[in-house]
């Protein structure tokens, strides 16, 4: 079943993508939730026209994302957490990284940060998706609180 996505759907695609999914998934979940519409020939033509008109605006958004990516590469993140030796009491997640970026002056939503759950001190990297074409690898370090 071919569908046009109305918004980003994780593990399926981004907004305005034409995707092929199983019929039940599309009919019972994506369409009723308002995440997608059927990809009829007329809907594809409308989508192509909208994408053509939006292309130059998209270029500016991508350039802004690339500028932010360069700024993020310069940011040094050190997260302090309670630890017993190398093992943390608790864990460090993308929420903690988002809070540290906020302190550094960069407001990035936590759902665009992928780091996994870290339970030991050391150096790690998180990927930050600023745009569908711009993904930044952000190094960070977890240190033990004294």
Beta-strand percentage? 25-35%
Helix content: 25-40%
Structural class: alpha+beta
What is the tally of beta strands? 10
Report on the biggest sheet.
4 strands, mixed
Q: Give the terminus-to-terminus CA distance.
A: 57 Å
Please, what is the average pLDDT?
90
Give an overview of the whole structure:
It is a single chain. The chain has about 150 residues and is α+β, with helices and mostly antiparallel strands. Helix content is about 35%, strand content about 35%. The chain is built from 3 helices and 10 strands, in the order ββαβαβββαββββ. It has helices at about 25-30, 40-75, 95-105, and strands at about 1-5, 20, 35-40, 75-80, 85, 85-90, 115, 120, 120-130, 135-145. The protein has a 4-stranded mixed β-sheet with strand order 4-10-9-7. A hairpin with a 2-residue loop joins strand 5 (about 85) and strand 6. The protein is elongated and about 65 Å long. The N and C termini lie far apart (about 55 Å). The mean pLDDT is about 90.
Map the helices and strands:
Layout: E1 2-5, E2 18-20, H1 23-30, E3 36-38, H2 41-74, E4 77-81, E5 83-84, E6 87-92, H3 94-103, E7 113-114, E8 118-120, E9 122-131, E10 134-144
Parallel strand pairs: 4-10
Antiparallel strand pairs: 1-2, 1-3, 5-6, 6-8, 7-9, 9-10
């Amino acid at each position: 079943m071919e569908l046009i996505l109305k918004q980003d759907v994780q593990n399926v695609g981004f907004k305005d993508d034409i995707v092929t999914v199983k019929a039940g998934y599309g009919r019972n979940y994506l369409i009723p939730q308002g995440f997608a519409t059927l990809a009829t020939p007329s809907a594809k033509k409308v989508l192509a026209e909208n994408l053509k008109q939006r292309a130059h605006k998209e270029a500016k958004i991508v350039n802004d994302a690339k500028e932010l990516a360069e700024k993020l590469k310069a940011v040094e993140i050190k997260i302090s957490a309670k630890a017993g030796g190398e093992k943390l009491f608790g864990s460090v997640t993308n929420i903690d990284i988002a809070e540290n970026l906020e302190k550094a002056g960069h407001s990035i939503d936590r759902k665009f940060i992928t780091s996994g759950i870290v339970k030991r001190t050391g150096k790690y990297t998180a990927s930050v998706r600023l745009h569908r074409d711009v993904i930044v690898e952000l190094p960070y370090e977890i240190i033990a609180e004294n």
